[in-house]
Amino acid sequence: MRLPAWLAQHLAALRALLVLTVLLGLAYPLLLVGAGRIPGLSGPASGSMTPVGSTLIGQSFTDAGGNPVPKYFQSRPSAAGDGYDPTATGASNLGPEDVVDTPARQSLLTRVCGRSVAVGKLEGVDGRRPYCTGDGVGAVLAVFHRDGFTGPVTRVVSVNQTGTPFLARYQGVTVEPAKEGEDYRALGGVITPIRGDAPDRPVVPADAVTASGSGLDPHISPAYAALQAPRVARERGIDVSRVREMITAYTEGRAVGFLGEPGVDVLDLNLALDGR
Amino acid sequence: MAGWLFPLTLAAALVAVYRPFGDHLYRVVTGARHHRIERGVYRLVGVDASTGQTWGVYARSVLAFSAVSVLFLYAFLRLQDRLWLSLGLPAVADHIAWNTAVSFVTNTNWQAYSGESTMGHLVQMAGLTVQNFVSASVGIAVAVVLMRGFAARGEKLLGNFWVDLTRITLRVLLPLSVLFALVFMVGGVVQNLSGGVDVTTLTGGAQHITGGPVASQEVIKELGTNGGGFYNANSAHPFENPTAWTNWLQVFLILLIPFSLPRVFGRMVGQNRQGYAIVAVMAILALGSIALTVGFETHGAGTVPQAVGAAMEGKETRFGVANSAAFAAATTLTSTGAVNSFHDSYTALGGMMPLVNMMLGEVAPGGVGSGLYGMLILAVITVFVAGLMVGRTPEYLGKRIQAREIKLASLYFLVTPLVVLVGTAAAFATGNAATALNAGPHGLSEVLYAFTSAGNNNGSAFAGITVNTRWWDTALGLAMLFGRFLPMILVLALAGSLARQRPAPASDGTLPTHQPLFVGMVAGVTVVLVALTFLPALALGPLAEGLR
Amino acid sequence: MTTTLNDLVDVGPAPEPPTRPVGAGLLDPGQLWRSLPGALRKLDPRVMWRNPVMFIVEVGAVFTTVLSIAGPSVFAWAITVWLWLTVIFANLAEAVAEGRGKAQAAALRNAKQDTIAYLRDGREIPATGLAQGDVVIVGAGQIIPGDGDVIEGIASVDESAITGESAPVIRESGGDRSAVTGGTRVLSDRIVVRITQKPGESFVDRMIALVEGANRQKTPNEIALNILLAALTIIFLLAVVTLQPLAIFSKAYQAAAPDTTAVDGDGVTGIVLVSLLVCLIPTTIGALLSAIGIAGMDRLVQRNVLAMSGRAVEAAGDVDTLLLDKTGTITLGNRQAAEFVPVDGVDRLALADAAQLSSLADETPEGRSIVVLAENEHGLRDREPGRLSDATFVPFTAQTRMSGVDLGSRRIRKGAAAAVTKWARANGGHPAEQVGAIVDMISDSGGTPLVVAENDRVLGVIHLKDVVKPGMRDRFGEMRRMGIRTVMITGDNPRTAAAIAAEAGVDDFLAEATPEDKLAYIRKEQEGGRLVAMTGDGTNDAPALAQADVGVAMNTGTSAAKEAGNMVDLDSDPTKLIEIVEIGKQLLITRGALTTFSIANDIAKYFAIIPAMFATVYPGLDLLNIMRLHSPGSAILSAVIFNAIVIVFLIPLALRGVRYRPSSASVLLRRNLLVYGLGGVITPFLGIKLIDLLIQLIPGI
């Protein structure tokens, strides 16, 4: 009996898929799993593990309440689950102009400002940033004009603050605090971030106030490590220069001299400080 | 400055392998001898490897194989809880299973799911990894058929799909995958069947360190310009892409086959300089795009990047801003869609570049196979306009470009805008755009990006948007399906049409298609056509956000 | 030498200088006005439908008209008016192109009607009643009643009705200038014409049908281009239509944005959306495409070439190989006397004198060239045959293979070497050995020896040689630069052929060519993928003419040849093939150039319209307003106006064709890309800005 051409074709396709599934879906990966058992490869292939985690996977160095444990170098902020959760990897996915807090969530700008103030407080340095208020939220006004985008200013609201606005007056108009849950853009306000007078290069480095892509970033920048060095030294009662030496020792330079950026593996450094 | 060495060293490496690797590919798709293992495969499949197929039969074979693949993968996903190594994960929901099956068969590898919390190891290996291989082979095979169409001298038979599929998979993709998977494992990419390890962190917290056969999938994810990550975080995940040098290697693997296929084209048509011309167009567009992306990201415009001092949100410390931006450009210039940083948090204009790269039709250099045939379609359209301007019926490589050829090329060119623009408009018109995470123009970009990525089979995302709803999974699934197979059928038909013609010899009156002028014109036509098609939509998305 | 020869022999119209670009048709501004009614008639949707691009513009214009009535404003009406004008301008282009043909056809009809044919047998019948084979007499001032051959007499004829060329041409019996065309006027003298046409199938009849574009069919390239334009139109339609939900979303998001003429709460207003669409779709080329095609045919007709199909014209642009007959095309129609070579002991003057005397009654071009050479080189005045009362002329016959004159006792003969020497011997002479040597020498150099003998004495040899037409070498060089191979076809032996081929500068030659050889050569070229063009006139050329991709039959040729070819050249000028190729190329180039121009224009229009639409929603987008246009309304209106008037500005170019100089493809592409690509990008920026500066003065914009 001869099968119709279309059926024969699909049966051939199915057989081809099954053959290739055995070759590519079983033989190939399992061969490599086998290779991963070879001494030398088995370490990395099974996850570069230490007793307290993987040196490749970042972790939070916080206590049960989520507060930084001061004797440890702190990792970057993380958007993976509640922070550094390998079962929920990912980033914040918030855009560069995400500056207005809503009842549902904080804006990216406010997150950055809040982290900066927190880090500044923890490390005892100036946590101010451009476009941030002193209390750590996005310095953003909704400016109402008579004719939409033009004409005299009729009303100004500091959209991320329900308390005292960061600015008293804007173009001669008194700045109001925001009411909880009010969408001032929908009311016709023009969203206007205010640069403020914070230095162009804030003391708190960029990686300290931003979440990584994976949420598992094991590294911090050498600058952020340097910022944390005095605190860690103080908490551990060791000389800050000793801490700095260890930072240098655990700083991974650019691969091959020009790839990527230098970073400090936080877990490795903390383990080393603990003498483990 | 170190940031610029990344693309430059990549370019140097790709130049170095262009000839040897391209020649290897050429031998694979033209060689007369069948390997012993391949003969075994043909026997098991039950096909006669010595017979050729017309374009129509070839197209039906491609469609049959892909249809069976979608069904097989869908069933696999729906039944995963009853299979081994499911890690206790439930069956995948029907709309996600449909979306994922289509996504991996179409070489899109869009992920409407989060890998670590949805897919067990067996599905990852025997379902997803397999499609990573074969969808890439299908793309290359179709491109090879188009090349055969250009090279043909009146023949009707354009090769045998089953032979092409088997050879490309077994002689090109598999050996390279084994080699580079081992290299990745040295770098720290995991390869095990562990269901994960629970650890107590240094400060007493709990952390579940995941495991899995990652390296074997990672390498083909890049080499086949697939892009579906084992984990949700994709190539940003330290277990997928642990170091700055594995990062370089990933981009190299992404670009390796697409940038080498023009060599095969040149050899196939008997004029290597034609291959050089095509690769030059690709390189011009790619370098321009990478430069702009890296430039925009390192410049770091926008309120939040200004507040931060760098566009570091969503980027890994070990890669830094510049290498992340270069990866983003490479992954969208091809149909890969793997990400090592999250495009949604890019600066407005830096984030527009991946979008534009995909809108270019992913031709610079594009997905494996699909990039070359897309570029050749653009070359055909350019030849037509340029050919008229030199006063002859347009010819490309001696093949006359007339009504039938232009009809097929034009339809090809119509598909993506149709899918992208209609899909985006429909999302807004039906209110489904409301699942965007970000507000205003950035939210619009998320929606536009989703359909651009699906329609061009890229798979990367402005990932803030929630797309695992029934509407989104269905709409994007259709976008991927149309965006993949309609162009393929048109390309195969074009190959058939070209093959029937006996080539005319070139003379001084023939438009030279290997000279810088033509190279520049193809690049110009590509950019202008794309700009004209998508500028209105871009104006309301990234441009509205980025221009102030 | 060249000039002398030219003066010596009437070679018909002077050859064109080789670099002369394909000539321009003139556009009379009044023509635009006269074509307006026709343009308006074409607004009928059933007619517009044939041109999808312009049909969409018309639909858009109807739509904005409705919107303008519903919500009148200066802006809305201004846009509406200009959209209608866009459609009308497009129709105008086509109407003007057709009108030129119609005017020509009308003139031709005038010339044809009321013509009386005076048959040789004395009957007078209307010209329309003539049958093939009738013989008519046409005197000075009369109109030739039908196509035919002059069988007696010589006359100057005014052919301006067909050619537009006011200078009269000479038509005479015998040779290659014997064909006359119906509808032309005899200015002097009187000729007898044998009618060759069938009733109603004269050149003029066919030309009328052709220039009126009665059954114009789209050519392959035109079809392909139409497909591409349709695809672009669909893409832009998509881009514009799908923009609306995005615009509504954006406007709603930016609550501060005021409602404007461009965007309100319902998204982009209908008028602006239609404006954007019309500006983006390729209206420029869409409007001019059919005019280009009609004008291309028109240019051929102006050169007295009748193409049976537009396809043949396009194929002419694609020709790779030109087969040219040696005689009449590459060389002057016939061999010319170049030199008198006396045998030792004979004065050159005596030889010239004898040669001239023997040729006085010889009306062949060769014979006359001998007379003329003797006159010019040796001052021997032409002597009227009739004044030599005692002369008896001996005509050439195939048996004797010589001709001559008997003047009393002087019996002079000239002819083939063997025949004349035999004749001299028969008269008792002993021709010198030297004669044979001279004859061989002339033969070796590709010439033809004619031996002259008087009574028993061989005086010497006349060297007849092929003379390559002046300027041909340059033209073949040009052809080579265009990538076209020229092949000389000749019945000569290979040695002779090689000598002439080298002198003329052709790429190849086919010697001792039989009709079968020609056919085989064409097939061989075509199998290699080349397109072949050839000219022919004889019945035995018919198979080759039919096989060639472009076969140009001479109007003087046989009807079999005319049926086989796909073009007929009324002037029967074989070199016209070269011009036909150029016209074919120019036609394609014009289409390509205007397509490029049309698409390149869109860039500037975007920079005008996108900021105009959306800068009120997102003020940052005003950065895209690089032309700094006055207001959203003026920006959109300027783009629409530019889009419309650019059509009018390009009508002359469409009718005339873009400038074409024979050169290689790279050179052509570089030039056209610069002019029409880069020019197409820059021009609208300037044009739109200029229009904006003017219309911002209109209140309400």
UniProtKB/TrEMBL annotation, chain A:
GO terms for molecular function: ATP binding; P-type potassium transmembrane transporter activity. GO terms for cellular component: plasma membrane. It comes from the Bacteria. It is found in: Cell membrane. The chain crosses the membrane at residues 12-31. Residues 75-99 are annotated as: Disordered. It is a single-pass membrane protein. Its main location: membrane. Keywords: ATP-binding, Cell membrane, Ion transport, Membrane, Nucleotide-binding, Potassium, Potassium transport, Transmembrane, Transmembrane helix, Transport. Part of the high-affinity ATP-driven potassium transport (or Kdp) system, which catalyzes the hydrolysis of ATP coupled with the electrogenic transport of potassium into the cytoplasm. This subunit acts as a catalytic chaperone that increases the ATP-binding affinity of the ATP-hydrolyzing subunit KdpB by the formation of a transient KdpB/KdpC/ATP ternary complex. The system is composed of three essential subunits: KdpA, KdpB and KdpC. Belongs to the KdpC family. This is Potassium-transporting ATPase KdpC subunit. It comes from Actinoplanes philippinensis.
TrEMBL record, chain B:
It is found in: Cell membrane. One of its GO terms (molecular function) is potassium ion binding. Its main location: membrane. InterPro entries: KdpA (IPR004623). It holds the Pfam family KdpA. GO terms for cellular component: plasma membrane. It is a multi-pass membrane protein. Keywords: Cell membrane, Ion transport, Membrane, Potassium, Potassium transport, Transmembrane, Transmembrane helix, Transport. The chain crosses the membrane at residues 57-77, 84-105, 125-147, 168-190, 248-265, 277-296, 372-390, 411-429, 475-496, 517-539. The system is composed of three essential subunits: KdpA, KdpB and KdpC. Part of the high-affinity ATP-driven potassium transport (or Kdp) system, which catalyzes the hydrolysis of ATP coupled with the electrogenic transport of potassium into the cytoplasm. This subunit binds the extracellular potassium ions and delivers the ions to the membrane domain of KdpB through an intramembrane tunnel. Belongs to the KdpA family. PANTHER family: POTASSIUM-TRANSPORTING ATPASE A CHAIN, POTASSIUM-TRANSPORTING ATPASE POTASSIUM-BINDING SUBUNIT. This is Potassium-transporting ATPase potassium-binding subunit.
TrEMBL record, chain C:
ATP binds at residues 362, 366, 396-403, 414. Keywords: ATP-binding, Cell membrane, Ion transport, Magnesium, Membrane, Metal-binding, Nucleotide-binding, Phosphoprotein, Potassium, Potassium transport, Translocase, Transmembrane, Transmembrane helix, Transport. Gene3D superfamilies: Calcium-transporting ATPase, cytoplasmic domain N, Calcium-transporting ATPase, cytoplasmic transduction domain A, HAD superfamily/HAD-like. The system is composed of three essential subunits: KdpA, KdpB and KdpC. Signal peptide: none annotated. It is a multi-pass membrane protein. Mg(2+) binds at residues 537, 541. Residues 1-24 are annotated as: Disordered. It comes from Actinoplanes philippinensis. PANTHER family: POTASSIUM-TRANSPORTING ATPASE ATP-BINDING SUBUNIT. It holds the Pfam family Hydrolase. The gene is kdpB. The chain crosses the membrane at residues 51-69, 75-93, 223-248, 268-294, 603-621, 633-653, 673-698. GO terms for cellular component: plasma membrane. The active site is at residue 325. This is Potassium-transporting ATPase ATP-binding subunit. It comes from the Bacteria. SUPFAM superfamilies: Calcium ATPase, transduction domain A, Calcium ATPase, transmembrane domain M, HAD-like. Belongs to the cation transport ATPase (P-type) (TC 3.A.3) family. Type IA subfamily. It is found in: Cell membrane. Its EC number is 7.2.2.6. It catalyses: K(+)(out) + ATP + H2O = K(+)(in) + ADP + phosphate + H(+).
